[in-house]
Design a protein that fits this description.
single chain; 506 residues; alpha/beta; Rossmann fold; 4 domains; 7-stranded mixed sheet; 23 helices; elongated; disordered C terminus; binds adenosine-5'-triphosphate
């Protein structure tokens, strides 16, 4: 942030905004920039009034209008360039007070020729349209490992603990990335209480809890591997061939980090499974974003929700950010602003820009069932590296899925005939195969037996696959995918070999 703030102040931007919950850290950075640029720093808040930071002088004025009047006098002074930090001014702008908005505009106009600046500081900011073009946002990232190291050392010193070896320290700092300084401080302190030292597992657990509590992103710890996915050979190969793309050697080679993947397809065919396996294939942490939550809650908060998600993902980067059923969050963006005052399309626009321009290695895996709700801009080249379509599994894939499902439930695939089972469950998705096996296990358990082919075939007969009920939708999806998306599975050969047996392709 310091570099960007320095540039804006040097360029004479009169109105700036820093949106963060970390007031103290932001103010420390503003102070350092003002010191190096020789600007006279002041801070206003309704509780403390206007404080001249340099002189230590305080003028009580809880009313923001009175504060602006005092600031106007400061801006009248020649030769001194003032920077005023306005804490929580956003609270007076929602809904906006016409007098305050006007005064602020006048003041910004007055500030410009004298090289003064006002910085709005708060945890969110929704400006009225009259001020929207007058105030420029300054990026304020979550703390990097280096800054968290200072927090960690502070906690160790307070608790009279020795500095741990570099590997332990580094592990704890990496685990804390994505937290604010206060949240990281709490996580480190908890680790000290629980283990009398620093344990990255405690810090990681606290981070997962904190992010979950914040409600937008969730850390997913259990990640299946690519071997846990049956079929989808093309998609798996694509991922395998990019598994080293986030390494230091790939960076040295000059390889741009992959941006992301969009996986579209029929429900239950393994899209979420693949999203999770992507993180293990790349060896990166996995964050799951609930797009619906970005738009839920207080009106006007979606923008700051999205900003917070991006900040978290970028702080943890390199990482995989999985956006499940993205169409649910994005559908409002097609309403051309009629239903929610344009918020969805604006937030969606910011998300697309970030996707296109992001420099931090955040690999986005978006999954979708309903393409009719995906806005066309979303599919334009440059956003994702590839778009895959996942169809119903063919016989060979179903046989592979049977083997995986059987093994996952603690049974030996060799005890079953997966080729026969695959033939018996045409039109079934992977999720349905899993459900059928569980059903068969229940029946077998009730009979006091181990599940066998007979239990499974009976369970298959009892099941109506979803595909039978959504014929039209599946046909439409296949039609849409033709020419637009790559097939996740190769279907070219009429018969494909599996484990030495031949399974007929659909
Ligand atoms: P939805 O769109 O409804 O979220 P999805 O396509 O994301 O569905 P998953 O959630 O990945 O489907 O699949 C559900 C479960 O079905 C998985 O956890 C897994 O047990 C099983 N499954 C689905 N497809 C496969 C597959 N190709 N290989 C192995 N298991 C699978």
């Amino acid at each position: 942030m310091q570099q960007q703030l320095t540039t804006y102040l040097r360029a004479g931007y009169p109105g700036l905004a820093i949106i963060t919950a970390e007031e103290a850290r932001a103010e420390a950075e503003i102070t350092s920039v003002c010191t190096s640029l020789e600007r006279h720093l002041h801070a206003w808040s309704s509780s403390e009034g206007l404080i001249d930071i340099k002189e230590g002088r305080v003028t009580t004025c809880p009313d923001p209008l009175d504060a602006l009047q005092l600031i106007e006098r400061l801006f009248g002074q020649e030769k001194i360039r003032h920077v005023i930090v306005m804490r929580d001014l956003q609270l007076y702008l929602e809904p906006s007070d016409p007098m305050l908005v006007r005064r602020l505009k006048d003041l910004l106009r007055l500030a410009k020729p004298g090289g003064h600046a006002m910085i709005l500081l708060g945890c969110r900011l929704k400006l009225p349209p009259e001020l929207d073009h007058e105030i420029t946002g300054v990026d304020f990232s979550l703390p990097a490992a280096e800054q968290l190291g200072v927090v960690l050392d502070g906690i160790l010193a307070t608790n009279k603990l020795k500095r741990p070896n570099e590997a332990i320290r580094e592990g704890a700092l990496q685990s804390a990335l994505g937290l604010t300084t206060t949240e990281a401080e709490n996580a480190f302190a908890l680790s000290v209480v629980e283990t009398n030292g620093i344990d990255h597992k405690v810090v990681a657990r606290e981070k997962a809890r904190t992010l979950k509590r914040n409600g937008l992103v969730e850390v997913i710890e259990t990640k299946p591997s690519l071997a846990d996915i049956g079929g989808l050979d093309q998609l798996k190969e694509w991922l395998e061939r990019r598994s080293g793309a986030f390494s230091t050697s790939a960076k040295a080679y000059g390889l741009p980090a992959p941006k992301g993947l969009l996986i579209v397809g029929i429900p239950g065919t393994g899209k979420s499974l693949t999203a999770k396996a992507t993180a293990s294939a790349f060896g990166l942490p996995l964050l799951r974003l609930d797009m619906g939550r970005v738009f839920a809650g207080i009106v006007g908060q979606s923008e700051s929700n999205l900003r917070s998600v991006i900040q978290t993902a970028e702080a943890i980067a390199p990482c995989v950010l999985w956006i499940d059923e993205i169409e649910k969050g994005l559908s409002g963006s097609q309403s051309s602003g009629s239903s929610d005052g344009g918020t969805s399309s604006r937030v969606f626009g910011s998300f697309l820009s970030w996707m296109q321009e992001k420099e931090k290695p955040v690999f986005v895996v978006a999954t979708a069932n309903d393409v009719s709700k995906l806005p066309p801009e979303f599919l334009r080249k440059g956003r994702f590296d590839e778009l895959f379509f996942v169809d119903l599994p063919d016989a060979l894939e179903r046989a592979q899925i049977w083997d995986i499902v059987i093994a996952r439930h603690g049974r030996k695939p060799a005890d079953f005939d997966s080729v026969v089972l695959a033939r018996a469950c045409e039109q079934f998705t992977g999720a349905e195969i899993d459900a059928v096996f569980i059903d068969a296990m229940h029946e077998a358990y009730a009979d006091g037996k181990e599940p066998g082919n007979k239990h499974i075939v009976e369970a298959i007969t009892r099941t109506v696959p979803l595909a039978n009920l959504m014929d039209g939708q599946i046909a439409a999806l296949r039609h849409w995918a033709k020419g637009r998306a790559r097939e996740a599975a190769s279907r070219s050969t009429p018969a494909r070999r599996y484990s030495g047996r031949v399974a007929e392709s659909n």
